[in-house]
Specification:
The structure holds two protein chains of two kinds. By secondary structure, chain A is of the alpha/beta class. Chain A is built from 20 helices and 28 strands. In chain A, α6 packs across α8 and α9 packs parallel to α10. In chain B, the strands form four sheets. In chain B, strands 5-4-18-17-16-6-7-14-15 form a nine-stranded mixed sheet, with helices on one face. Chain B has a five-stranded parallel sheet with strand order 11-10-9-12-13, sandwiched between helices. The chains are: A alpha/beta, B alpha/beta. At the A-B interface, α1, α2, β9, β10 and α3 of A face α3, α4, β8, α5 and α11 of B.
Amino acid sequence: MDGTLIELHGGRLYDPTHGINGEVRTLYLSADGIVPPPPDAGAIAQSYDVSGCVLMAGGIDIHTHIGGGKVNLARMLLPEDHDRHPVARGVHPRMGSGHAAPSTLTVGYRYAEMGYTACFEPAMLLANARQAHLELGDTPIVDKGAYVLLGNDDLFLRLLAAKQDPAVIGDYLAWTLDAAQAMAIKVVNPGGINAFKFNQRKLDIDEENTAYGLTPRQILLALAQGIHTLGLPHPLHIHGSNLGVPGNVETTLATIAALEGLPAHITHIQFHAYGNEGDRKFSSGAARLAEAINRQPNISMDVGQVMFGQTVTESGDSMRQYAGSAYASPKKTVLMDIECDAGCGIVPFRYRDQSFVNALQWAIGLELFLLAEDPWRVFLTTDHPNGAPFTSYPHLIRLLMDRSFRNEKLASINPAAAAASILGTLTREYTLYDIAILTRAAPAKSLGLSSLGHLGVGARGDVVVYTDQPNREAMFQRPRYVFKAGELIVRDGRVIGTPTGATHVVKPDYERSIERTVNDYFARFMTVRPQNLRVSAAEIEGEGRGRLVVYSPRRSA
Amino acid sequence: MLKKLAPVPSPPLTHAAVTCPFCGLLCDDLTITARGTQLTVMANGCPKASAAFKAADLPGPPLVNGQPASLEAALDAAARILQRSQQPLFAGLGTDVAGLRALLALAEPCHAIVDHLHGAAMARQVRVLQSRGLIQTTLAEVRNRADLVVLLGVDINTDFQRFAEICLTPAESLVPARLAARRVFQVGPAASKPRHAGVRVERVPCAAVDLRQTLSALRAELRGRPHRVGGRTRTGVTQLAHAIRAAQYTVIVWAPGQLAALDGDLIIASAGELIADINRERRAAGLVLGGNDGGQTALAVCTWITGYPLRLSFAGDTLDFDPLRYQTARLLGQGAVDALLWLSTFSAQPAPATPIPRIVIGNAASTLMAPNSVFLPAGTPGLDHPGQLLRTDAVVALPLRELRPTATPSAAALLLQLAQRLR
């Protein structure tokens, strides 16, 4: 055993991975993580009486835009966000700024202050992978990982259009994961980002990308099959077609059907759950969507809850962000076509509780949370910062756990939106156990993080101690203690330690012959050498900046 | 009598797929031979790269007030300068990601102001971005997708010398029809006409001071209104408007560093408006050429670590971003700072002359032999030590390698040692 042995006694544990629901148990922590009770009590260096407290594993954010080119463009675009939200000298170990688009250092400290100890950046491009990892390397304390975007890159579309053997496509997916040091694969508006470069302004699920003659349905299926064959822990992470378009619930239902039963994760589903009924041709599709997902155990989702206030939307979906730029507030937009790989769009936005559409978006997100029957297939997100900054999570948790608080808020939003939502009729209140599933156990399971998200022996030792209080927002905002890998890093809401988190990556096997295809493509069409695009382990781990945790999945037949 | 032995030459080492750190394009296909510490570009170097690798001598010993000193003594002297300073300026910033990280970590406890050598060009571009945003593209998109490229007052003969080869005249394209149809217009003074073989350039001649007016005329023409430049209609403008209407993907290229006239930011803003106009019906995007001397890297790293782009002050209790106030020349001229830390490992840009104490962390070309100064020799990233730089298009970052044996430390290592002394 290495280092100081810490005992936490008297607290109630919520550890859904092990079915522990509020039992009083003693935890032992060291630099090795969570360890069995020592044979000799004398070995315990520090003992904390945490009676009356709630203990959970460190929180895991499965979808948060915190690092990479588009995040940095958003920072650059919004000095007003930083001027209004400075992080003064002495507040954190180092200065920083920002609310919607915080600086990297500030992101790490704020997540830790809330008891989150792992964050996953969901939209890394191979072309931008080095920068994404550099930014994540400057995000202190938390573990991290990133999902690489595929499905709009010209190489993938060429392979698919040429009807390449699925094994070759699988090799290309695996090569990309390896080169980009990624943890999963995400698709954004399948084929649509690419189509926008050819001036298509919308792409329905069975509409062809004119340049390649491929539909989103074909792209989704090829990616989902490839990922399934590679045996990746996290299934295809899908940002679907028609984001934000009234009536897009049909697209989302069609997307689920297109997967033909293969595992998939539908991300920020709130933005894809809109009907087009009513006077304003905008309505909630939450009930239909939740019903469909409740019946389909292959599908998980995160919500992408909207909260009221100023934020900035950052997305790879250049096609939809261009359409959304008309609603920018303040009035400015950055849009990019990127390196025959993908694209991005940055649109600042203010969600207003008196706007019918924004208020209904808020209600739709909550409806989805409350109608989803299996908490293991729902993850708590605001799609930071697209629905709201991640710092609104404690407020969101209170909305889920406290029906009277929720109804109070419902009474304060645009009345027509409140009337158009079934939210007021939903009596469900999430329990602490449910919250521990949504924010810890379920994301860890979905990503295959064996040492995170639980409190069993062998866990990495990310433990959060909350003072139990009826106001769940206050409780989750400011934990009493946060331990990262067995080290006390936050005490009474103040960051006192800044260890470096690990970077989680997945490395499936692949046939090296795919490199010939990749090298040939890069030599003919691209502007860099693929060996130079590849992010080395040393770049992430060098100078003691980080540590890779590598998962090696086994191919299924 | 002993026979005089001829020195045994160490065999030359050849490195392939080397990233060139000497301009914002970061070409990563150079072949470089190292004979001892002498570097020679064998393949894929532009004239600027060939000259820069050839001239990249290793710096001499540390200097204190122009006198050789041990590294320890020089670091001590540099630390004393920073300790005594009430308001230091960290400028130049010609370094890699690691150097920037170390510099920003030092800027906070030193309450420093930070600015880059190309701070003026950055401020020009950033101001437009922050006021209205921009639709942008990257090198590979231009190479493959563009059927119309408009070089807006940009001179690719003296800088970004391989831009034409990489983006304008590739042997093939993902969209062959676009390459076959590709037209290149050059709007600006005659001297900036690309001299690259194989590029047929259609010219819209105008003086640098008329660029903005020409863009306005172009926008008017595209909206079907008659235009006037200098009191008359220009056929070149009309032809370019026709070309834009016929194109599927127009790319407008400019270099903020070359738009040094007073209305540089307004030219960029007009280009942005033109791009927005075109996108209502067809596709267009801007490509920004810049980021030399680690400029794009400095801008990006400062933005992610602090939330703000460059020209930033750590002097107060909160960060203060002010591109007008925190200009190196203005701060030095006004006597607003009392110590200068100058970081320059790529170019031959000497530290500005100033009576205040100066610390130079730099390459051989920035050696400073002067009273009231400390020179700390540093390696060049990508020649003397590994590292990373960001390319001009704000997307691609590339790895730098060590090409020759040297004991010269990196700027990052020196800055970390300085920080330890100031603890």
